[in-house]
Amino acid sequence: MSKSKPRSPDVKDAETPAAADSAGSAGPAPAGKARRIAGGATRVSALALEQEARLIREIVSILAGNSDVEPERGDKRFTDDAWKNNPFMRIWMQGYLSWARALGNVVDGVPLTDRNRERLRFLVSTLVDAAAPTNTLIGNPTALRKMVDTGGGSVVQGVRNMVADLTNNKGMPTQVDKAKFRVGGNLATTPGAVVYRNEVLEVLQYGPVTKKVHARPQLMVPPQINKYYIFDMAPGKSIIEFLVAAGLQVFAVSWRNPGAEHADWDMDTYVSALREAIAAVREITGADDVNVHGACSGAMTMSCLMGYDAATGATQVHAATMMVAVLDGREESQLGLFTTPQVIALAKRSSASKGVIEGHDMGRVFAWMRPNDLIWNYWVNNYLMGNAPPAFDVLYWNNDTTRLPARFHADLMDIFVDHRLTTPKRMTVLGEAVDLRQVGCECYVLAGISDHITPWQGVFNTSRQIGGRNTFVLSSSGHVQSLINPPGNAKARYFVGDESAVTADDWLDGAQAAAGSWWEHWKAWLVARSGPKVDAPVALGSAKHPELEAAPGLYVLER
User: Fold this and answer.
1) Beta carbons within 8 Å of 450's beta carbon, 6+ residues apart
2) Which residues are part of the catalytic machinery?
3) In the chain, what's the furthest Cα-to-Cα distance?
4) Cα separations (Å) of 223 from 57, 148, 322, 542?
5) What does the pLDDT average to over 77-86?
């Protein structure tokens, strides 16, 4: 392992509670407030004038051909040679970039709390991204060239694509060519069978490919907002396939796609269903306990189960893996910037009125958190270039969303915003007050260095909320790509550090880089906690829990 450090996005310190900004709280006298407001307005005006003057000077330099303004490294919007060789296009690019940086400097200098500054930064960034010249036909030399080459055909097709999205995709650019994928065809293809089903979930068991298997089974717990096959993508990219090949007995939960009639399903509903799933896995394998592995909201559900087990003295979970999951919103993230009490109340009322919250609605929120990658990229491809959306399996899965029941949605928000799960005894699960510090099983905790949904610092803090020994691993990728990280990628790496570190910064200071996929590191961790090898089962299921359907089952196909 090398001593190179991961490059981590800066994260602002958590600011004081929003109530501190309330006009009704104790504070300076009205005259003092007026002076403070006037002083702030003066500083903002001076800052704006300063940046305007700098921008004018930079524009003069650009027009004279003396500017050295360049796109940031990794900015794919300005890779066409025309941005370097065409004087008009270069002036446009440099003017846009200078304007964007001037706005960023204004945001940096405005006298605001850290939280409000990050809110403003997000809004300004969204505006700046939308105003990029590359989002227009005349400002995109690649699209202009294709228009000429096709005699206008690309423009005609782009208009058709836009009309189709306005009609069928609520105006959002389509991200993936869905016709190229089929669950059970070229996704979720690892051989197995449904061996248990209740109203909330199915349990799939996967056939062994080795003569011997480790005695303790593994149960995968996916997020409820997406389908389970994040763990079983195309062959060669499947976590389940990888674990089966390692001689592990693998089972997976496949959640049902709820409708409005399931509005009352809450966290207790999902924990109870998960307990039934574990009981079925134990009966089929004859194991006393299992290893459980959850991602995102699936890991939240799994944590609630482990908290309940700790409160009741149950010992059905031997070891656990938590992937890209945070158990509260103390760490700043884009997702948490606008989670004010008013927004939370509105979101709860909205889902309660419908009985569910649609996965596609949540998907749009996530897309606007990274608009260049998840919106404008496809705007250019589909509309300006007139291309079909790409055929990318991860994007297909990302768009294959499910609904969330209203009460479960409310529970997730309360856990995230009110810290109910990480505050001892504040949350009850199936009637028991839970304290995650009492959870005694070992945990493997995975985070992604560039994860914009569950920031790695928050995932690290989550690992310190759970009792028992924890192994924290930081992948060099983002939210989803951290999960789908099979061996063989020459660019892949991960980081391990001092498990006694108290803070994320302390851990980062001592982190060491390892080349390759974290899957191999995790496999070794799992094998050491999965018991002795025994003869592989000759059939799936048991007399009590026979095969019901071939994998991928029925629930994953529900729309």
Assistant:
1) 9, 476, 477, 478
2) 296
3) 82
4) 51, 46, 11, 27
5) 96
Q: Of the candidates 429, 434, 430, 439, which has an alpha carbon nearest to the alpha carbon of residue 463?
A: 439
pLDDT at 453 over 90: no
Locate 63 and state its tokens.
């027009």
* Gap between the Cα atoms of 383 and 33, Å rounded: 50
Mean pLDDT of the chain: 90
Quick one: average pLDDT of 277-290? 98
Cα dihedral: 233, 234, 240, 246 (round 10) = -150
Amino acid 218 reads: Q
| Tokens 């994998």 -> residue | 551
- Calculate the alpha carbon distances from 323 to 162, 231, 465 in Å: 36, 11, 15
CB 356 within 8 A of CB 260: yes
What SS3 string covers 345-410? HHHHHHHHHHCEECHHHHHHHHHHHCHHHHHHHHHHHHHHCCCCCCCCHHHHHHHCECCEEHHHHH
User: What count of Cα atoms within 13 Å lies in the side-chain half-sphere of residue 56?
Assistant: 6
| Residues 249, 253, 256: CA angle, nearest 5 degrees | 160
Contact criterion met (CB below 8 Å) for 241 and 248: no
Within 8 A by CB and 6+ apart from 151, the residues are none
137 alpha carbon, distance to own chain's centre:
32
SS3 string, 435-453, reads CHHHCCCEEEEEEECCCCC
Token pair in block for residue 127: 């505006």
**Would you say 427 and 301 are in contact if contact means Cβ atoms under 8 Å apart?**
no
Q: How far is CA 219 from CA 100, 199, 268, 302, in A?
A: 48, 18, 19, 11
pLDDT, tens only, 391-436: 999 999 999 999 999 999 999 989 988 889 999 999 999 999 999 9
Among 50-59, 208-217, 233-242, the range scoring the smallest mean pLDDT is 50-59
Domains of the chain (ranges; CATH) run: 32-135 (no CATH), 192-557 (3.40.50.1820)
Phi and psi torsions of 534, nearest 5°: -135, 170
Is the four-CA dihedral 92, 97, 103, 106 of positive or negative sign? negative
Expressed in percent and rounded to 5, the helix, strand and coil fractions of the chain are 45, 15, 40
3-state SS class at 292: strand
Cβ(308)–Cβ(301) below 8 Å: no
Q: Which strand (E) or helix (H) includes residue 512?
A: strand 512-515
Q: Which among 136, 131, 156, 166 has a CA at the least distance from the CA of 380?
A: 136
Q: What is the C-alpha to C-alpha distance for residues 290 and 374, in angstroms, rounded to an integer? A: 38
Quick one: pLDDT at residue 487? 95
